[in-house]
Amino acid sequence: MAFFVFLVVSLLSIPSYNVEAKSNSQQQSFDRLQEPDKTLEVDNDFDCVDIHKQPAFEHPLLKNHKIQLSPTFARDIKQSRPSYNGKAFKVESFTKGCPPPKVPIHKKALRHHQMNTTSSWSKVHPQIFRKSKLVAHLLTSTPNTIYRGARAAIGLYNLSLQAHQYSLSQIWLESGLEDETNAIHVGFGVDGYKKTGCYNIDCPGFVQVNSNVGLGKYIPTRTSIVGSTNDIWELRIHVKQDKSTGNWWLYTTKPEIQIGYWPNEIFTHLKEGALRIHFGGETFTPLDMDSPPMGSGRYPKEGLGSSAYMSLLGIVDSNYNENDINLEIMRAYVSRYCYDLGHIGYWNAQFGHAFFFGGPGGKCDE
Question: Where is each Neprosin PEP catalytic domain found (predicted)?
Fold first, then answer.
């Protein structure tokens, strides 16, 4: 089953323009712009594309956008302390890399733009907001508080899913009312859709600046459920808003890699900061199917080595200071009985603030 690092940006209400109104002639012009340099094929999944010609710039609000190559807070990035004795996934090994100023773009994303006459930058799975979406997450509970980012170390697990299902482990940041929410989702997922949806840079808007990290690559290493912390793999991800530009940056630590950013121009609400931050899992299944597994597919009570976890949880406050989460402002929420959260709190110096989450799925209404 597909196992990949994903990015999603959801903008449910953008009153300033209509992407679907783009003409065929405009699309054909963009297709010519997007044609990759075939002599610079990174591997079987990626091509090298000029940084100024990547899919991000199909977005109508980025026509005159000036690329930011590095966040202004780069010198302030702190390396995370090790959270266990296992293995940190080497995100830089996704591709072989491209010669600057080119960046690796997944071929699916290029085909996506070459085959469609209208933009689908906002088309995540069309069912993503239906009632059959289930979550188990830890979220902020203080109203009218502004946040500028979040971080987490997420254990990596493979799962077996059926067609038309997905299971995600992620951080997501939101702002705006329900019918006009801006949201950024970042993490990893297992997706039974395979060919639909709008992840990574399939959706115009995310600007990739790193020449070595290709988003959308299947992850070849993942944790086996063997009861040993030595066999745990994890991905350490951060999302932080740049104080000077308002752009939302995605980067990793251990090692420090600045991958790219969501420009502030594409948002109506998140440009002013996030009002809600969530950590945890999300699944979707059609209404006539059992729910898929979440996390590692095991309940939190099974503990480290079996249960999925998030650790080193942190939030960037309104003054752009990065801190460990304050559990007094967090609350747990589980939407069905076949998933759970557990052991929420400060574990130790290695894991920091952490929790277990997930479950086997199944008939969640029973």
Answer: 128-365
Q: What DSSP string describes 241-308?
A: E-TTT--EEEEETTTTEEEEEE-GGG-SSGGG-BSEEEEEEEEE--TTSPBPPBTTSS-GGG-TTTSE
Q: If you compute the radius of gyration of the chain from its CA atoms, what whole number of angstroms results?
A: 19
Distance of CA 39 to the CA centre of its chain: 30
Which pTM was predicted? 0.81
The position carrying tokens 């980025």 is 62
Provide the pairing of β-strand 340-348 with 352-358: antiparallel
Q: How many CB atoms lie within 10 A of CB 166?
A: 25
User: What is the C-alpha to C-alpha distance for residues 4 and 159, in angstroms, rounded to an integer?
Assistant: 12
Q: What is the pLDDT of residues 184-238, one digit of tens each?
A: 988 888 766 544 334 555 566 889 999 988 777 666 555 555 445 556 788 899 9
Helix (H, G, I), strand (E, B) or coil at 53: helix
Tokens found for residue 128: 């993503």
